[in-house]
Amino acid sequence: MMAQQRMNEFLEKLSSGAPVPGGGGASAYTAAVGMALGSMVANLTTGKKKYAQYQEELESLLEDAAKLTQELAGFMDKDAEAFEPLSRAYGLPKGTPEEAAEREKVMEKALAAASEAPLALMEKILESMKMLDRLSIIGSSLAISDAGVGIQMAKAALNSASLNVFINTKLMKDRAKAEEMNFRADRMLTEGNTMADRVYETVLGRIC
Description:
Oligomer: single chain
Number of domains: 1
Largest sheet: none
CATH topology: Four Helix Bundle (Hemerythrin (Met), subunit A)
Number of helices: 6
Helix content: over 70%
Radius of gyration: 20 Å
Mean pLDDT: 93
CATH superfamily: Formiminotetrahydrofolate cyclodeaminase monomer, up-and-down helical bundle
Structural class: mainly alpha
Distance between the termini: 41 Å
């Protein structure tokens, strides 16, 4: 499992010529780090008298953020699993009309699966951004910059994951399905980037 690797090992594989891990795995890793920073902010806030009114909410956020961090990290493997069938499909023979037709059928299915994985990752990233949004308001002023760093990492991961959607949907023959996937990605991009920019300004307002 990629999430269990040492960072240097992961980076070495990422920089190699191997097809996985790639951009999808890197996006998931970045998203997990962003959410972990949210947990850091919550941990540095919980139990503080100044923020006692948020104690119950902070405890809930800590539990949810820990779970979500692991789910985001899990997409490092889910991305690789989704890409494997597509990688095999590219190698299928296409010398005869029958082979070409079968290859196209397999490719179409693999392209859709390879698009669904980053779409699911984007949904999870949006969940993390909502938590970071809240933490940018109730988090300790001593750690609030980390909420800002977390939201920027989540934003980068969201935008990066969308590229793994678009590169696959572009090749799909079923244009109706491809456009439906593109629409879902675009909707999450709009929501996430708007939220991330707002949170960043909130954090800047608290530290400047």
